Amino acid sequence: MKFMTLAASVALAALSLTSARPMLAARQATCPANVLSCSSASSGIDGCCLPTMGTLLLVQQWYTTLGPSNQFTMHGLWPDTCSGGQGPSNGCDSSRVYTDVQTRLENYSGTGASIMDDMNTYWGSYTGDNNSFWSHEWSKHGTCVSTLAPTCHSDWVQDQDVYTFFSTALGLRKQYDLYAALANAGITPGSNPNVSDMHAAIQTAFGVDAEINCASGALSEIWLTFNIQNGNQYVLGNALSQGSCSGSISYPEKSGSPVTVPSSTTGPISHSTTQPSTPTSTSGSGSGSGLPSGRQTGSCSTNGATVCVSSGSSNQYSKCNSGSWNLNQCKKGLVCYSDTQTSTHCA
Ligand SMILES: *[C@@H]1O[C@H](CO)[C@@H](O)[C@H](O)[C@H]1NC(C)=O
Ligand SMILES: *[C@@H]1O[C@H](CO)[C@@H](O)[C@H](O)[C@H]1NC(C)=O
Ligand SMILES: *[C@@H]1O[C@H](CO)[C@@H](O)[C@H](O)[C@H]1NC(C)=O
């Protein structure tokens, strides 16, 4: 650039900076409102408006050594074609293939809140190397979500694409609480549900069906299919397939402790919920807070309800499972605390 005048090189720099922006603004301005990806109206629409692949699968897993005992954890958010075809195994943008997603999420300086606690709680790897798992999911799948591409966002900051990918998936996981959907239909871990009843439970909770997959006759993953509109609105749709489970399957208990999950949901689709019944104390003195305490026995009506044997001083709690109370205990070193009439936590 030595041969250029200063004015010429400034002009060139200004041109290269601005040439990207008006194009982006134009691309964003032309996003049609309320057109759903994979609908007949979606063909030819810009990849910044609708994902070029078509759909996004929210893949949640049931892995007994990972996460809270009353929550599914994340495997991934996978772009698929409208007919279920997968993206390239090495991702879609080699310039954004990363091996340090953990650091990128920790360093992210945009306006979003830190998601590291939720990442480590709800997106753990069974190998223990969470960073490798996240980096793989980002590189193979995240780089294929065309709506997240940096060039689509005029106000993009470093790693906004990575952050948005993971925070979106975590938000959908929370919104579409599969554990609650099943528990509201009386299907809880430690039982052998008929997978037809699981499909029905998800249909009741979310209004659509999911793909339910098994490994060696045990529940392994549940896939929810989303189509996108207006760039970033995820609209739950029906699964393309029922999945690999059939008949009665094993829904094993997890080794972790339960977490208290707020019962309100903010999703666009209303969920059916079961009114919790108040458990009756059969023994024990309680914590003085008016919450139930004491070991519960016999039958119960709210599957998944938990009651501490002695809040704040014992690690034992009763849990309503398939219509009867069972005795459980918090992990070693933790004590049960009552939260509401029907829920507790270990700390
Ligand atoms: C994270 O931040 C540190 C400290 O500012 C910096 O040295 C490092 O390069 C950053 N890493 C990534 C992947 O952004
Ligand atoms: C990785 O995830 C697992 C499972 O959720 C979690 O127990 C562990 O603490 C996480 N690792 C780190 C370093 O936080
Ligand atoms: C599961 O439920 C379906 C539909 O109600 C029924 O046809 C099937 O026999 C059941 N399978 C088992 C293993 O209970």
TrEMBL record:
GO molecular function: ribonuclease T2 activity; RNA binding
Pfam family, one: Ribonuclease_T2
A GO cellular component annotation in the UniProt record: extracellular region
Positions of region (Disordered): 251-299
Main enzyme class: lyase
EC number assigned by the record: 4.6.1.19
Origin: domain of life: Eukaryota
GO biological process per UniProt: RNA catabolic process
SUPFAM superfamilies in the cross-refs: Ribonuclease Rh-like (SSF55895)
Active site: residue positions: H75, E137, H141
Leader sequence residues: 1-20
InterPro entries to which the protein is assigned, alphabetical: Ribonuclease_T2_eukaryotic, RNase_T2-like, RNase_T2-like_sf, RNase_T2_His_AS_1, RNase_T2_His_AS_2
Keywords: Disulfide bond, Signal
Biased composition regions of type Low complexity, renumbered to the chain: 255-284
Family annotation (PANTHER family): RIBONUCLEASE T2
Family that this chain belongs to: Belongs to the RNase T2 family.
Protein name: ribonuclease T2
Species: Entomortierella parvispora
Gene transcribed to yield this protein: RNMpa36
